[in-house]
Design brief:
The protein has 286 residues and is mainly α. The chain has 11 helices and no strands.
Length: 286
């Protein structure tokens, strides 16, 4: 059985959520390693300011990525950092994690952050966080391409948030030509079921129905109202009448011509002979 995005959405929901927990742990490890290197740089280096600023920037970036992996400040992330929002995958996240990993491991070549000056315990924290965040960066990029559905327009982040429901709702939206039922809208108490497709056409109100019926009646009257001849009273109007002829709109009667293309066999109909009637034959037989 070939693998499809819909079949991978269910396992992908679990795999991507486990990967999210690992992302948060790896980013917290980067924050801890950067703080350790910041303290060690200040105590052992003469040009600690610039190294300290670089470590502080690394901490800020890691904290931003941690926030993007949680449920907090989603509006701010979608507005100011759209590449980290649910409408995009994990390519940006994985690329940023790769850059952080390379930066962390690159600092180990400096004398201030070497094993001799930092100690074995702190040095292991730094190298472990660098290796972990680099591996997680590759995994996020791969997962972004594996669990997405380009045809349905579903990203890996949406699969991580809703699972197979994300692909089903996207397919329903494309099938019925309208906005499909969303999982978040269902929580707000809409009262509809996720498997029920939305109505494509809304029911007409009683006022609209009556207007349509009136239009149909008027069209029928204008279409068939003048077929029959009109009979007008040419006499003087009655004084007791509420409406006089002068007040009514003038209407002209139609002149109906004689039939055309008459069959000559039936031009002059002749009454059949009664003697040939079946009833006469029955009388003769008796």
């Amino acid at each position: 059985m070939p693998l499809s995005p819909k079949s991978l959405a269910g396992p992908g929901y679990i795999i991507l959520n486990v990967l999210r927990a690992m992302n948060i742990i790896g980013l917290l490890a980067v924050i801890a390693a950067s703080m350790v290197m910041l303290v060690k740089t200040v105590t052992t280096s003469n040009f600690f300011f610039f190294d300290g600023v670089s470590h502080a920037v690394t901490v800020i970036i890691a904290m931003l990525l941690v926030i993007s992996e949680t449920k907090y400040f989603r509006g701010y992330i979608a507005r100011c950092w759209p590449l980290l929002s649910p409408s995009h995958g994990f390519v940006t996240l994985g690329s940023a994690m790769l850059i952080l990993g390379v930066d962390i491991l690159g600092n180990l070549n400096k004398p201030a952050t070497s094993q001799k000056h930092m100690g074995l315990g702190f040095w292991r924290i730094v190298i472990a966080s660098g290796i972990l965040i680099t591996i997680l960066g590759f995994l996020n990029i791969i997962a972004s391409f594996v669990f997405r559905d380009r045809k349905a327009g579903v990203t890996a982040r949406q699969v991580r948030a809703k699972g197979a429901v994300a692909i089903s709702s996207a397919q329903s939206e494309s099938q019925y030509g309208g906005k499909a039922y969303s999982f978040d809208a269902g929580r707000s108490g809409s009262g509809s079921h996720g498997n029920t497709p939305p109505a494509t056409y809304a029911a007409a109100t009683p006022i609209e129905s009556s207007r349509r019926n009136d239009k149909r009646k008027s069209s029928r009257f204008t279409r068939f109202g003048n077929i029959l001849p009109l009979h007008r009273n040419n006499g003087p109007p009655s004084p007791t009448s509420l409406y006089s002829v002068s007040e009514r709109p003038e209407r002209r009667g139609m002149q109906i011509s004689a039939p055309v293309n008459i069959n000559p066999n039936f031009e002059h109909p002749v009454r059949p002979d009664i003697a040939h009637h079946p009833a006469s034959r029955v009388g003769q037989a008796s």
